[in-house]
Amino acid sequence: MSWVPLLTPWLARLGAPVRAAAFLLLGAAVLAVTGATVPGAVGLAVLLALCVAAITAGLPALNESIAALAEGSRGTALALFSFFLAVGSSLGPLAAATFTGFNLLMYGLAGAMVVAALAVLASRAITAGRRP
Predict the structure, then answer these.
(1) Predicted confidence (pLDDT) per residue in 46-96, tens digit
(2) Nearest 5°: CA angle at 123, between 75 and 77?
(3) pTM (predicted TM-score)
(4) What is d(CA 118, CA 68) in angstroms, rounded to the nearest whole number?
(5) Where are the alpha helices (DSSP H) in the chain?
(6) Which of 16, 43, 67, 70 is deepest in the core (most CB within 10 A)?
């Protein structure tokens, strides 16, 4: 994760929604590769570390996007975002138990991340028209 500060000048050129969507899509791609290749222990550790790095790098952009969209209700919006992050992490073990195989779990999580990235981009497109 030490590479993120090195990329900060380049990443700052992109808007927060674009950064958030890009890192969500990167994480989804890593999960899809993990499901498709079924790597050994070392490969799995590297791929999952890359997924965690993508999520970790994308979370500040998600926070920034939500705060910008919330306007006057910034605190409430960020509190709700934090709540849903906690709910999502609590549902993780249930999701893992629901899927019958590792490949399906990876594909399901990758699909959820793609939907999240599309939702971020859609919120950006919807709110772009109402900003002065």
Answers:
(1) 998 999 989 888 888 898 888 888 878 889 999 999 999 899 889 888 888
(2) 10
(3) 0.82
(4) 18
(5) 4-11, 16-37, 41-70, 74-98, 102-128
(6) 16
